[in-house]
Amino acid sequence: MTTPTISRSARGRAVGEPLETDAPLIYFSSASDNTHRFVTKLPVRSARIPLLTKDDTLHALSPFVLVLPTYGGISGQGAVPRQVIKFLNVEDNRLLLRGVIGAGNTNFGDTYCLAADIVAAKCSVPVLYRFELMGTSEDVDRVTQGLDEFWT
Q1: Which of 95, 112, 118, 135 has the fewest CB atoms within 10 Å, i.e. the most exposed one?
Q2: For residue 120, what are the contacts with CB-CB under 8 A and spacing of at least 6?
Q3: pLDDT digits (tens, 9 = 90+) for 17-30
Q4: Is there a contact between 34 and 70 (Cβ–Cβ < 8 Å)?
Q5: With the CA atoms of 61, 90, 78 and 69 taken in that order, what torsion angle do they form, in degrees rounded to the nearest 10?
Q6: Which Pfam families match (predicted)?
Q7: H-type helices in the chain, by residue range?
Q8: What is the pTM of this model?
Q9: What is the DSSP string of 8-33?
């Protein structure tokens, strides 16, 4: 009798097997990659929530801070990306969430970083910082320092 072959994805995990991470920073970035560009400038281990909703979502194994952009423009409808909702619908992920950092566009006025405010309120965690688009070098410095202080 032969052992069945497990189909593996490009990331080396079995297809259908959940993605797991103990990264202290978890983020979602749309196809524009603005949030991704910001996060990669931070000297912090991070994990990305999958872009495609048909994919398995990420599973957090330890406390983390969530970085997310706001969708919906001026209307604010659909401000929290579907992928983030799917991720936070996993109870263990919600329980390990410790804070939120929002990305947005000041052109959208009152809805600037609205997704961070919504997630923070629903999960009873603080909004730690807000930045525009892909952030500035000052934003990177402030978030780096803020996360160091937050985790100590």
Answers
A1: 95
A2: 99, 100, 126, 127
A3: 558 999 999 999 99
A4: no
A5: 0
A6: Flavodoxin_NdrI
A7: 34-40, 82-88, 91-96, 114-123, 137-151
A8: 0.85
A9: B-TTSSBTTPPEEE--SEEE---TT-
The yes-or-no verdict on residue 14 having pLDDT over 70 is no
* Cα–Cα distances in angstroms (integers) from residue 125 to residues 70, 94, 97, 99, 103, in the given order: 17, 10, 7, 5, 17
Which residue has 């603080």 as its token pair? 126
pLDDT of residue 78: 87
SS3 99: strand
R_g over Cα of the chain = 16
Tens digit of pLDDT for each residue in 80-106?
999 999 999 999 999 999 999 999 999
Residue whose pair of structure tokens reads 């080396």 in the numeric block: 12
CB 73 within 8 A of CB 81: no
Element spanning 101, H or E: strand 97-104
| Interval 59-71: pLDDT, tens | 999 999 999 999 8
**Dist CA 92 CA 150 (whole Å):** 21
Contact 102, 115 (CB under 8 A): yes
Dihedrals phi, psi of 128, to nearest 5 degrees: -90, -30
Q: How far is CA 115 from the centre of its chain?
A: 11
